[in-house]
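Side project, low priority. Logging it here so it doesn't get lost.
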Amino acid sequence: MPGSLNGRTALVTGATGGIGIAISRHLAAEGAAVALAHLHEHRAAEALAQQITAHGGTAVPLEADLRDSAAVRVLHQQAAERLGPLDILISNAGAYPRTAWTDMSTAEWHEALNINLTSHYLLAQAVTPDMISRRNGRVITIGSVLATAGRHDLVGYIAAKAGLEGLTRALARELGPAGITANCVAPGSIHVPAEATVVDDPAAMTARQLARQCIKRRGTADDIAAAVVFLSTDHAGFITGQTLRVDGGWILA
């Protein structure tokens, strides 16, 4: 069956997390060959690649520390060597460290910015020159509605995610003349397996979240993946510099 991304190549970072897995699977289902970037998640990345190939897709796992500019350049080179020139960058990797801001050390602040903002800059810097030379490409960053809503004990994460929206708009200006779009997808409260390890009372948290939303169900990783796939296709060729909140109507302003 023809897919909307047949013949395209994509790099997905944070590919072994809940949202990254869904994005990778959806891109592959639409025909894209996918490089699965991870850090110290060899078994999970190999398992995901095998699942994708078992369903007729193409995927290769690649490891890189995205905080290291040299490692990012190697990641891009390996992805291009294995799959061909990259058409799509899904800049998804991040971390969610919870620390009261009054207790946060300068080192913790810089680490939050490095993984949740600077890594996205390094990826775009490494990947987009080839896109510019071919005058085609898609850059999609994964942000968070918390950049707008705010939340206790996440000052570094939220500051970085707000910066990521600004970075994405700047990239849209820089890359648009070469026919490349840059957009941010901002998930709301998405149910992923890791949630059980960080929330003391998941049922109470879900009740509070549903009270905030217009749509009275939890978001899923597939909801995020569907938005990412759309922005990756030719159908979204005139959309750039935008933040698409996929949050069930949590943030309406």
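Brief comment: The first strand starts at residue 9 and ends at 12.
Revisit when time allows.
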